[in-house]
Design a protein that fits this description.
By secondary structure, the protein is α/β, with parallel strands linked by helices. It contains 15 helices and 12 strands. Helix 7 links the parallel strand 4 and strand 5. Its EC number is 2.5.1.-.
């Protein structure tokens, strides 16, 4: 039975059953594969025949995970990586060379900032940052040697948003590759390729797993572009392990119901904190006070599970609040079943200068709240007592 419904696709897309007729896909913990004869081996290595050659290239578990994600995101093909940062590095490495230029959103994850400033810069790749809230500035930054437009939306941790249809049209007008980090939204809430992106990237460690267990990443996009990704990745070796792929594929079966709960609770937390006298600022895409609220409503199904706040009183007040939390975990991760509080200025974004952090709205009092799946009354009670 064919279905266009997200939940059914996520649950029923599965690798072909073996002779054992298993109901749930098994884990294929094998590094290599047997060929029927010398000719089959030759044909597989020559790409004249489809099949598994080596688990650094493909594996039944990673293939199932990729197939599901392609169907859910509206992509033609994909490649699964060991981490989300491996997905970003592999995408940059496959398409960029010395002399190329990137236009990137200023609000990017700390490690992505490090790739742009300290890694690819050594190899002759230059970049310019643009602000998500100033779309009018993006076109002027495109140069003759610009190869890629890269954006996080919603951004980490500022929860800023940009119109992906606008960026898609901009990329088309200038023949640019538009790459979107879709980690915070997941394919359940946002599908960048349908809005004009060429490639969509996820840290599957986050909501795709959703339970803080395994690392993983995935690159999704048009088949000809993914062919270049695969060509680079086969030799650089960032492949996802079969075990992690099995976990992530199983996790997709509950992504929709988990995201519904994350979003419902996060909105209630955001609405509560927006009225609290000790909170200076609340950022959440589906709050009417969010500067890009209308864009968020247009391109996202719901607002996601992340709420970013600024506690009045700076770093001392932020630390007091975090140290007073009892239910929330203090962790650098996010998108877990367990609610998490993070202080970006001293953790995930500590390599940015104070000026760079201020530009993207990361104050000393900023705290990123990843709202988990606990009962909403308990989540709110913990926040309330921590702010008392």
């Amino acid at each position: 039975m064919k279905s266009e419904n997200f939940e059914t696709i996520a649950i029923r897309t599965q690798t072909e059953r073996s002779l054992h007729k298993e109901h749930s896909a098994p884990i294929y913990l094998t590094s290599s594969y047997k060929f029927d004869d010398a000719e089959e081996m030759r044909a597989l290595f020559a790409n004249e025949k489809e099949g598994n050659v080596y688990s650094r290239y493909s594996n039944p578990n990673t293939s199932e995970f990729i197939e599901k994600m392609c169907l859910l995101e509206g992509a033609e093909d994909g490649f699964a990586t060991a981490t989300g940062m491996a997905a970003i590095f592999t995408t940059f490495g496959a398409f960029l060379k010395a002399g190329d230029h990137i236009v990137s959103s200023r609000s990017v994850f700390g490690s992505t900032h490090q790739l742009l400033t300290n890694v690819f810069s050594k190899w002759g790749v230059t970049f310019d940052y643009a602000d998500l809230d100033k779309p009018q500035d993006w076109e002027a930054l495109i140069k003759p040697n610009t190869k890629m437009i890269f954006v996080e939306t919603p951004s980490n941790p500022g929860i800023d948003i940009i119109d992906l249809e606008f960026l898609g049209q901009l990329a088309k007008r200038h023949n640019q590759l538009l790459v979107v980090d879709n980690c915070f939204a997941t394919p359940y809430l946002q599908q960048p390729i349908k809005l004009g992106a060429h490639i969509s990237i996820h840290s599957a460690t986050k909501y795709i797993d959703g339970q803080g267990r395994v690392l993983g990443g995935i690159i999704l996009g048009y088949k000809d572009l993914i062919a270049e990704i695969i060509g680079f990745a086969r030799h650089s070796g960032p492949a996802l392990s079969p075990f992690n792929a099995w976990i992530l594929s199983k996790s997709l079966e509950t992504l929709a119901v988990r995201m519904d709960r994350h979003c419902e609770s996060a909105l209630k937390v955001a609405e509560y904190l927006e009225k609290h006298p000790k909170i200076k600022l609340v950022k959440y895409p589906f709050l009417p006070s969010h500067p890009q609220y209308e864009i968020a409503k247009k391109q996202m199904k719901q607002g996601g599970g992340i709420v970013t706040i600024v506690v009045d009183g700076g770093i001392d007040a932020a630390r007091k609040f975090m140290d007073s939390l009892q239910l929330f975990s203090i962790s650098a991760n996010l998108a877990d079943t367990r609610s998490i509080a993070t202080h970006p200025a001293t953790s995930t974004h500590n390599k940015l200068t104070e000026e760079e952090r201020n530009i993207v709205g990361i104050e000393q009092g900023s705290i990123r709240l990843s709202i988990g799946l606990e009962h909403i009354n308990d989540i709110l009670a913990d926040i309330e007592q921590a702010l008392a």
